[in-house]
Amino acid sequence: MKYKDIKSPNDLLMFMKENFLYGYTDKNGKKHYPEDKDFNLYWYDNYSLSSFDNVINNKIGNCWDLVEFERKWFLDNGYEVNTFYEMVVLDYNNNYPTHSFLTYKDNNKYYWFEYADLANIGIHEFNSEKELIDYQITKYISFLKNEFNIKEKELSKIRLYNFLKPTEKLSAREYIDFVTSGKSIKK
């Protein structure tokens, strides 16, 4: 399937499964994959938010990149979308992962479109946006508990932000600053 042949959210998900790998490109255009021993080592200092064309051409992206790729397709096809960013906000450094995801509305239903979170790939349907967000945060908490042994007292520090489209080529710090300046939605 070619990008121009995508006619539905299901087609988009299939296209992404067939064409994209999880990872990121750095400021110099080098591709980094999770199996690389230095995948996380230089990420923060070298990451650059990929453009739509960069994702298509390099066939790689992390959740930040892929949400922007998804956003373009959904908006170009007349869907109402929201994008969210979740993280654990602590007064000290932590290695808890962040996550960006896209939701869309269709026929009075709300959908969580997920490709980058391998454990939750798919299109998940909900009756309300609140139901969707509550469910997705439950998945994030479960991941943090099972994979990172997050402390119970830190769970109250999870924040969810609704953000608009960022500019391309933002560094990790610039991206985080941008998305966390969006509307904060408490857990």
Structural summary, described in words:
The protein has 187 residues and is of the alpha+beta class. Helix content is 34%, strand content 25%. The protein contains six helices and ten strands. It has helices at 9-19, 43-46, 52-58, 63-76, 129-148, 172-179, and strands at residues 21-22, 24-25, 31-32, 60-61, 80-88, 99-106, 109-114, 122-126, 158-163, 183-186. The strands form three sheets. It has a six-stranded antiparallel sheet with strand order 8-7-6-5-9-10, sandwiched between helices. A hairpin with a 5-residue loop joins strand 2 (24-25) and strand 3 (31-32). The longest helix is centred in the C-terminal third of the chain and has 20 residues, at 129-148. The radius of gyration is 16 Å and the shape is globular.
Chain-wise SSE layout:
Elements: H1 9-19, E1 21-22, E2 24-25, E3 31-32, H2 43-46, H3 52-58, E4 60-61, H4 63-76, E5 80-88, E6 99-106, E7 109-114, E8 122-126, H5 129-148, E9 158-163, H6 172-179, E10 183-186
Parallel strand pairs: 1-4
Antiparallel strand pairs: 2-3, 5-6, 5-9, 6-7, 7-8, 9-10
Features:
single chain, 187 residues, alpha+beta, 6-stranded antiparallel beta sheet, two-stranded parallel sheet, 6 helices, 25% strand, globular
Helix content: 25-40%
Strand content: 15-25%
What gross morphology would you assign? globular
Biggest β-sheet: strands ordered side by side in the sheet: 8-7-6-5-9-10
